Amino acid sequence: MKKFFVLCVALFATSAFSHIIDWYVDGQIYQTTTCQSGDSITPPTPPAKYGYTFRGWQGLSWIEYIESTGTQYIDTGIVPNADTRITATYYMVSNSSSYPMVFGSIDGTALPQFSLYAFNNQMFYTFGRKTNGDNDIQMSTTPFNTLHAVDCNKNVFTLDGTSKVGSNSVDINIQHSLYVFCRNFAGVSVDNCSSMKLYNFKIWNNDTLVRDMVPAKNAIGVVGMYDTVNGEFYTNQGTGTFTAGTAVSDPVEVYADGLIETIGVSQLPVAYRELEYISATGTQYIDTGYKSSNNTKVKAQISCPNFGTFVFGSRNSTSGDNQKRFGLFFNTTWNPQYANQSLSPAEQTSVNTIYNVEISKDGFVVDGQSLSTFSSTTFTGDYNMYLFANNTADTNIGYGSCKIYSFEIYTNNVLAHKYIPAKNSSNVVGMYDTVSRTFFTNQGTGDFVAGPTLGGGE
Fold first, then answer.
1. Domains and CATH numbers, the chain
2. Which residues contact 457 (CB under 8 A, 6 or more apart)?
3. 209-223 confidence digits (pLDDT tens)
4. Is the CB of residue 303 less than 8 Å from the CB of residue 207?
5. Half-sphere exposure of residue 449: CA atoms within 13 angstroms, side-chain side
6. Is 388 left (phi over 0), alpha (psi -120 to 50) or beta?
7. How does pLDDT run across 133-165, given as a tens digit for each residue?
8. Does the global pTM surpass 0.70?
């Protein structure tokens, strides 16, 4: 997947005739130009960034959300299929149509469709062939005037952290692209447009992120969604105009549980190359410097080549009342660990399979499905959490062999660390934390194995 190096321009007037232009690269001023009214502006020499193609200078500013009034929509250009996943945060303002849509595509009446819409006091996620409600997943909620976060992942619908599984028989053979704020009806019309605020919108196909759309406004005030994957600015294809939310300094993701995470168009500094994953062979580990507690939440994407391996963790001891565990052991069944609890859900695992896992006081979740819950307790660990290993009281390390694609740590639902697989200009492989701006490298022996470089390059 090719990523593009995107840069923003800010224009400031110093007087009626003199102007200062700041040219930004990765959020830092690259060059400053002073000009007079009527002057021709010569852009700076294009910057270079390893693995990226420079597409040009864009005057975009970030906003909290974009809002529709019932006549606007965006064509994502993505035709959904059986492996499409959507995540979004939205706020429906009013019941502006019979079935106001968050997103949708349908080939015609009672034909295959892929959509999310409100009806009465429920949200309906429809995937595959719709015949008398076939493949509809319904969730009771307050559809309007409430912030919602959704994850529509194949036959699993997650609304504000609650998941529901639909039919396993998925028949999706849609021919038309997915629209946001309304439904694409057979490529010839739109219907059921909503009055809605949209805070973020992401599309995956076959577990590959193909759209990462954040609210933005361009230099002439046009409001739309900027896709950080392909570097395109998507604007209204309907009538009227979108309304811009509050200006923000960086793109943000807003979640229904109050979590706000700043995201950059470029996640890493120029000196680092982002990797799909890094892999440990059983002697490497990363010391996060973070001590877990009952208010810790971990979200990670992982894959393990064999059973009987630690993914991450820390603990004071292996038994007794002072274990203060927080970690994950991968075996033929899952083994999440929290406080003095080490659980074994019945669900079987598979080697070399990519899983999205989450551990917190609310329980253990895999690919959007809750597999187990923990007994309520209060604790604060005394030892740092390790990645690719389990730290027992700084005296014993249980190593693991696995791949980590992403790893995030939250405290009280506030992002504390966001680790991105990366290698530096010396080809040292590790995890770059975009929160602390720190590159974490191997504290064990041997070397991590680097996955493919994202955005091209070696």
1. 4-58 (no CATH), 66-262 (2.60.120), 273-450 (2.60.120.200)
2. 50, 51, 273
3. 899 899 988 767 889
4. no
5. 10
6. left
7. 556 788 888 889 888 889 998 888 998 888 888
8. no
